[in-house]
Recover the amino acids of this structure.
């Protein structure tokens, strides 16, 4: 099932994120995926998140598909050149994976193999372009394909970036290159998000607001200092600081953010970062 | 006969081609910290080389910059932050906004972008594109571009990471 079909039907689309393990023991990850069954429309599977070497996204997407869950394959340009990326897109389609999220990817120096060769042969825009070309029945070199794939292509945007214009410029390029939906970086400031949505209204493309579960006040401060385009307002940090039950507070904050931003956008993308078990509680509290 | 035709003829001589490349390469290294990709897009990006970006981003910023500093090396300005500033000063945001830059052809790595341009090997823009604008007379445009290039160059020289490790992520 493609996410675009859901957007077209007018549904408020919910996705959540799943991180493959470092190793081959997939038991726990599949348990986490089971928690999401029936609650989310699709599950994003990250591609070597934070440049840390781990089990591949394609294999995990296949496992999810076998179990009847709808995967979103995340593809980054960090580790593969244009031949490998195009080939993996074809492989994904053959395995029944229809939703692909195209990203540039974190830089290698931030991960656990900082000495590896950074590839970045394509960027997120040219990766979307490549996928669109494959759908047209030809590859980036203009060679004809024997049977062409048909994807629902997604991309990402950071609504909290400063300045915002270059982000919107790139977003427009992504739409022109074939992006059919967007998932955003974590948003904690509904008013700023409303402004952003107003600015990108002309692109007429579904946007899913990103929600990262706040686990503690310390995590919020860390993100403010170290994560680009993410700003947790002081009031939320205080709320977390004063809370006796951090989990309950976190669920309450996430649900509140979703309720406030529900009418501004077309879906929500949850990034539980290990708190997958609380996803149903957040969705219940948000009325989804 | 246009400048490009004259150059195309001259490039048939290997001696000229070699001499031209040496001057181009050294000049661009000095002025733009050129990475010699041979697929030059400088005239679209406000004369800041996007290949200096650790992720070689040619179509826009990656979303990892913190307050205008690079996520790979926080001591270094985000290349796209510099590009944005420069194109705004030149009033040529349109060149950036309306052009999809195709991925570089790596066969051209380490060759002269001018020669590649006049031989028609590039999808990327003509180097003259920023200089020649229909609504502005050349005499006004050239000094503006030159002064911006010098300003960018000064920023590059006085940049916080100049003495440490130009273009390389920290160990």
């Amino acid at each position: 099932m493609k996410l675009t079909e859901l957007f077209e039907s007018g549904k408020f689309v919910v996705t959540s994120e799943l991180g493959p393990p470092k190793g081959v023991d997939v038991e726990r990850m599949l348990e986490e995926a089971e928690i999401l069954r029936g609650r989310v429309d699709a599950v994003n599977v990250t591609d070597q998140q934070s440049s840390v070497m781990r089990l591949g996204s394609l294999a995990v997407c296949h496992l999810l598909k076998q179990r009847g869950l709808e995967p979103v394959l995340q593809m980054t340009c960090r580790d593969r050149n244009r031949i490998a990326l195009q080939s993996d897109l074809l492989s994904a389609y053959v395995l029944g994976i229809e939703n692909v999220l195209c990203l540039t990817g974190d830089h290698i120096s931030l991960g656990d193999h900082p000495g590896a060769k950074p590839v970045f042969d394509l960027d997120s825009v040219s990766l979307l372009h490549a996928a669109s070309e494959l759908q047209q029945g030809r590859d980036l070199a203009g060679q004809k394909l024997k049977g062409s794939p048909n994807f629902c292509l997604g991309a990402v945007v950071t609504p909290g970036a400063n300045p915002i214009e270059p982000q919107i410029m790139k977003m427009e390029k992504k739409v022109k290159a074939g992006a059919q939906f967007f998932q955003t970086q974590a948003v904690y400031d509904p008013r700023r998000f409303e402004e952003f949505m107003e600015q990108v209204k002309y692109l007429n493309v579904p946007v899913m607001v990103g929600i990262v579960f706040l686990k503690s006040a310390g995590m919020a401060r860390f993100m403010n200092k170290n994560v680009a385009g993410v700003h947790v307002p002081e009031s939320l940090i205080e709320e977390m600081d004063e809370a006796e039950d951090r989990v309950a507070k976190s669920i309450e904050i996430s649900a509140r953010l979703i309720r406030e931003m529900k009418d501004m956008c077309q879906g929500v993308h949850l990034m539980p970062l290990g708190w997958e078990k609380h996803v149903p509680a957040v969705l219940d509290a948000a009325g989804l | 006969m246009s400048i490009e035709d004259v150059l195309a003829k001259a490039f048939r001589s290997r001696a000229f081609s070699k001499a031209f490349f040496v001057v181009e390469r050294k000049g661009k290294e000095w002025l733009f910290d050129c990475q010699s990709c041979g697929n030059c897009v400088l005239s679209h990006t406000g004369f800041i080389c996007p290949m200096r970006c650790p992720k070689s981003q040619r179509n826009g910023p990656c979303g990892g910059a913190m307050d205008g500093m690079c996520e790979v090396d926080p001591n270094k300005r985000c290349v796209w932050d510099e590009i944005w500033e420069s194109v705004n000063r030149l009033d040529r945001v349109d060149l950036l906004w309306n052009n999809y830059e195709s991925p570089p052809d790596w066969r051209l790595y380490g060759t002269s972008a001018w020669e590649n341009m006049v031989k028609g090997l590039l999808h990327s823009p003509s180097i003259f594109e920023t200089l020649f604008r229909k609504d502005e007379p050349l005499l006004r445009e050239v000094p503006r571009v030159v002064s911006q290039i010098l300003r960018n160059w000064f920023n590059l020289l006085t940049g916080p990471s100049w003495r440490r490790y130009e273009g390389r992520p920290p160990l």
About this structure: Residues 3-158 of chain B form one domain. Chain B has one domain: 3-158.
